[in-house]
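I'll show one example:
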Amino acid sequence: MALDPYDIALSKLERNSQKDRDDVRYLSRTVPFSLPTLQERYEAELRWQLGRPDREDLTMKLWMEMLSE
């Protein structure tokens, strides 16, 4: 069993340091990575487990914009 790129990206969401953002940007450019899939996985697998989902919703929105560039 191994983490896939979406698991890795979502594991970095809450901390959201510059290194985390750089890592996710790198993943999105070097492996097959679908932004709609990332958003779906966030909503289905992670969001309900967060203490402050509104904060992470904003982070996810900003990440989606960053990765779309």
Remarks:
- The longest helix spans residues 53-68.
